[in-house]
Amino acid sequence: MIGLSIIVATYNRSAYLLRTLDSLARQTLSPERFEIVVVDNNSTDDTPAVCEAFAEAHPELRLRRVMEPSQGISFARNRGIAESRGACIVFIDDDEEAGVRWAESYFRFFDEHPGFDAAGGAVVPVYEAPLPRWYSHYIEKMITGVMDMGPRIVPFRGKRYPGVGNSGFRRSLFDRFGNFDTALGRSGTNPMGGEEKDFAARLRAGGVRYYYIPDAEIYHITPAYKLSETYFARLSRMIGVSERVRTRNEGSASYARRLFAEAVKWGGTLVLSAGYLLRLRPRKALYLLRMRRNITCGLLTGR
């Protein structure tokens, strides 16, 4: 029986995808325990050839490539769920490399904790260019999803949740709570988000808790363009847009609460920026304020 279905949604990143697949081929978990479903979301590069060549070079792996014609990561992940056969479903993105114990850590977690249904692991950024002077921990979290919650399995507290790019779920959760909202999430080169937060909120409302698995570690490859001011501005703006779409879909009360939360976040941002100024790091302070401004503008205007 297949224990894990590993889903990799991909779009025009064949070189990075190959690194992802290479890391999956090095897993300590026996290949009999998992399958790999690559969901090609209309790639125009050599992704099909890369997948075919990799499958031929690794006949021990259960690797399939399926097509999803509707553009967007939520469509692609939902297609992966439909195509998968495992009792548990684990996601990794096409710009990430899995640590060698990644799949085994998820497999053992679900096998040894029958009452736990959702989990996420550590995220370590790998930079392909020098960091800009304005880069801070808070901007790093926005761009890379960096996560380290220590050496033990622990529950995520409050409203915190892992990014889907390193997360695992029992299949039954999708039957109970539905799939990812296709009105949200990255589409092509548009960095809109919100689908992860929306899904996590549904699980939380249903009493499901996420657990952190420290050994389920991935390395998030961050290319130079993601360290540019242009990408920073667009990503932060689209965070606000996705929050507007997500909360307005839930109703006017949800949107009003999010506006109030944004006002509170402004208070925190001002305090953090003042701290950078006191430490003579004015560019970090400035870009933290710009991040908050961009998110607020997206939240208010939807663009």
Q: Which parts are unreliable, with pLDDT below 50 for 5 consecutive residues or more?
A: none
The tally of structural domains comes to: 2
CATH class type of the largest domain: Alpha Beta
Fraction in beta strands: 15-25%
Q: Helix count?
A: 10
Share in helix: 40-55%
- Return the CATH topology of the largest domain: Spore Coat Polysaccharide Biosynthesis Protein SpsA, Chain A
- According to DSSP, the number of beta strands is 9
Inertia-based shape: globular
Structural class label: alpha/beta
Spell the H/E element sequence.
EHEHEHEEHEHEEHHEHHH
Describe this protein with a few key phrases.
10 helices, single chain, alpha/beta, Spore Coat Polysaccharide Biosynthesis Protein SpsA, Chain A, nine-stranded mixed beta sheet, 303 residues, 2 domains
Q: How would you explain this protein's 3D organization?
A:
The chain has 303 residues and is α/β, with parallel strands linked by helices. The chain folds into 2 domains: 4-227, Spore Coat Polysaccharide Biosynthesis Protein SpsA, Chain A (Alpha-Beta Complex), CATH 3.90.550.10; 230-301, no CATH class. Helix content is 46%, strand content 19%. It has helices spanning 14-25, 47-57, 73-83, 102-112, 137-144, 171-177, 195-205, 229-250, 252-278, 282-301; strands spanning 4-10, 34-40, 63-67, 88-92, 96-98, 118-127, 154-155, 166-170, 210-222. Strands 1, 2, 3, 4, 5, 6, 7, 8 and 9 form a 9-stranded mixed sheet that branches. Helix 2 links the parallel strand 2 (34-40) and strand 3. The N and C termini lie far apart (47 Å). 42% of the residues are buried. The model has no long low-confidence stretch (mean pLDDT 96).
